[in-house]
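Batch job 17 of 40 flagged for manual review because the log was empty.
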Amino acid sequence: MIDKEYRIPFDFIIDFLNPKEVVIKPMFGCYSLYINNKICFFLRNREDKIELNGVWVAVATPDDYQSLAKELPSINQDKKLIEDKKSNNKWLLLSTFDDQFESLVNNACDLVINNDKRIGKITKGSF
């Protein structure tokens, strides 16, 4: 279930997240997906910097990054959503260039459905 209708990229993610209630918020020309008041995913599909396109997974803590990166291996994982030290190891890219893109997104959604604590974080926009 979603709170509003948006034309989001990679809309199959909503089906993968069923039955979770998903709140979609436009952000920086992209879309963030909130589940249980936590940002879990950031959907980017823009014409600039296409190497950054895909589903970005919000990693709960920097310590969780490595285990999630092993569980969700995708090309371009070394890319950063924001190039600053504060954002390092907080976002994991599931790249649209990966042959297994949809399968990786499905796996990430399964983790969220099963309440994996490594995905999702409270932000100012969470409430």
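Reviewer: the log was empty due to a logging misconfiguration, but the result itself is present. Residues 12-126 form one domain. Unflagging and moving on to job 18.
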